[in-house]
Amino acid sequence: PKIEEVLSLNVINQNTNLEEFKKQYNILSDTTQVKLENINEISNIEFKNIENNLIFNEIIVGNQDSVIADLVNKLGNGDWVKDGFNKYILQDSQTCPFCQKDTITPEFKSYLENYFDKTYESKIKEVKKINDDYQNSFSNIPNIETFYRKDIVDDKDLEFEKLYSQIKSKLEENIKKIQEKIKEPSRKIELEKTDEVFQNLNDYIKQIQQKIIEFNSKLDNQENEKEKLEKQFWEFAIFEKKEIIEKYKQDKNEKEKYKQDLDKENKTIKDNIQNIENTIKEKQKGVINIQEAVDKMNNYLKDLGILSFYIKIQDDEKQEYIITREGEDKPSFKTLSEGEKTLISFLYFLQLCQGKKEKNEINTDKIIVIDDPISSLSFNYVYNMAQLIKEIFLRKKDNNYEQIFILTHHLYFFKELIGYKEAYIGDIDAFRIRRNKNYTSNIDTMQKDEILNDYQAYWQILKDYKEDKIHAILIPNVMRNILEYFLGFIQRDKIDTIKQIENEDKEKKFEAFCRYINRESHSFMGNMSDTKEINIDIFFEAFKKVFEHLGHLEHYEKMMKGGN
């Protein structure tokens, strides 16, 4: 319902029970809910007929024409005589159970048999049959549990339990009375009338059955019934909070009026800003261009040895450019490999970090996040990418960014970023991200000495290469880093050490190794990009020769055998 419609109501059902709302709604929303079985009333016709039988008000006695009839009537103990007759006389015993003399003669026995004749026995049988019928009808009354229906009636329904128990109690009392009549036929008895208690229970059962019918009907129309409940709930909820809502509407109208005034003022300010921005755009056209970014990206591609394609400005006015191949003017992006696309995207990202995407974008300090840029690149570019990031972001002091986050799984790439004896080492913080058994991540700070102690990790790269796990392009730079760490530790000069190796190398087969190790520059421009330039086996031979020359061959063998 609409709020306005509910608020206009002066009266609403105040007997609404929110818990009952919730219960009914959950039932209708339960897709596994099934219809309830109907509940039947309990018939009391059999009980009523027996309870009205006149035999219970009848004095059942023996044959009054019998010789002993006057004596039995005078003593008024016919039932006692019958009990004795059944227990002793019919057992063919002549001994009296009291005086223990043989006084039970055939003649006396015949007197008793004549007194308790067929008419008497017929009456007794009739009462016994009535007793059996009454008890059978009692047994046929269903157990109380058979009446239980989920969400309608259960063992918590005290009223139903009381009415059911009243019937049971009265019927049990009547059964006792009938059995007393059998035991004492001459005694008049009056059975309890059960009409009223049956009527009370059946009236209650009718109410339950009506609820079952309504429940099943709701299941047949679940969606409509849910809508009705929702409507009733919101009517109740809105009406309950009528004063609050009215206050809210009043406040809302006041605020909307205030907002209209602000919107008008805001439009005036925006119009002024737009005029200023238009002026800035016009002036920026003369000072902003994309040629510098294009030139830098093309130079990076050349330094990486990629000459098969380059970036070309297509529309200087719109500041658009394309990737094209040598001798072609059409875009070639779709023909690039995935690695080439990744490389171009990263080079573009680096330029974007240094510049801005739109002409009218305001210069602000950036927070830069680089996530494993070498993950899909050839090993040829791992070292180069690390050097490029260092040149652009880490070695310069005048960058226009607040922070830079670099994430990587690649140990070699990480070590190249950290560097050795880099001036920026004190400005960086290193962290390890670990996932524990509970699939949550922990971030641990790596101390500076912990980073330097990862010297063993470089040795692991050499061993991984021996197991064909690492590309050969990484090996020369790893060897150089190991020697720089080790020579620094034993305080030996790298240049002098390598020169001595060169002097001993009469065949000049270690020349490439010595030249590479002695190269002081770690810049992006000055590194080999193709393993065709080197023989890795000779590099390993020369690398081992250095430790042998220094008198630390044992250290070399220990590290290469996994003893680190």
Strand content: 5-15%
Strand count? 6
Number of helices: 22
Name the strands of the widest sheet in spatial order. Answer: 1-2
The N- and C-terminal alpha carbons lie at a distance of 76 Å
Spell out the blueprint of helices and strands:
Elements (H helix, E strand, L loop, with lengths): L2 H5 L10 H12 L15 H7 L17 H7 L2 H10 L18 H10 L2 H22 L18 H26 L11 H26 L1 H19 L1 H43 L6 H13 L5 E7 L4 E6 L12 H17 L11 E6 L10 H13 L6 E7 L3 H8 L11 E6 L5 E6 L1 H5 L2 H12 L8 H16 L3 H11 L6 H7 L18 H15 L2 H8 L4
Parallel strand pairs: 3-4
Antiparallel strand pairs: 1-2, 5-6
Helix pairs in contact: 2-10, 7-8, 8-9, 12-13, 14-15, 17-18, 21-22
Mind explaining what this structure looks like?
With 564 residues, the chain is mainly alpha-helical. Among the domains are: 45-62 and 117-217, no CATH class; 241-283; 288-363; 455-560, no CATH class. It contains 22 helices and six strands. The strands form three sheets. Strands 1-2 form a two-stranded antiparallel sheet. It has a two-stranded parallel ribbon with strand order 3-4. A hairpin with a 4-residue loop joins strand 1 and strand 2. Helix 8 (158-183) runs antiparallel to helix 9. 14% of the residues are buried. Residues 17-548 form the Protein CR006 P-loop domain.
In summary, what is this structure?
By secondary structure, the protein is mostly helical. It is 55% helix and 7% strand.
